[in-house]
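Why do we care about 3D structure at all? Because function follows from shape, and shape follows, mostly, from sequence. That is the central idea of this module. The next example makes it concrete: a single protein chain, its amino acid sequence, and then its structure expressed as tokens.
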Amino acid sequence: MNQQTLNLRDIHLPEPISWWWPLAPGWWVLLACTLLILAALFIIRKIYRSRQLRRDITTELALIKQQFQQSQNRSQLAKSLSILLRRASISYYPKTNIAGLTGEHWLDYLDSTNLRRSEKTSFRSNTGKVLLSAPYLPDDTELDFDTQSLIQLCEAWLMAPHRKTTRGQPS
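And the structure:
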């Protein structure tokens, strides 16, 4: 037969298959595992960082107790605990205006944010009121207060769970 009479078309091959799409099931499994590992690492890192403040406070509180055991300086103990309380409260409640609180307002704030508070563990008690004047006294000033009660009061507040806030006031 004659080639002109047959009206044949050229062979059209399909598009070449891409090496990356569609992915084989093994690649999907590998991608899912990678994403799960990354999510787990992100969550673990976030948990570790959220507990870092508690570890730092515990370490500094232990250091303050150790220094008091060695020196028996009540004035220095009250100053150190006052500073630690203020630093911790600013860290626990960063969006509130704590730095400017003084006097009875500071003690009221500490009592209002203490979730484990009772009548015996109030900063408005005589034990807690030492924190009002101690930071402003000279180091050699003799203070008369129950050191163990003050340490327990401050430790109870520092180790109590604190709720992070977003609106400006602790809940």
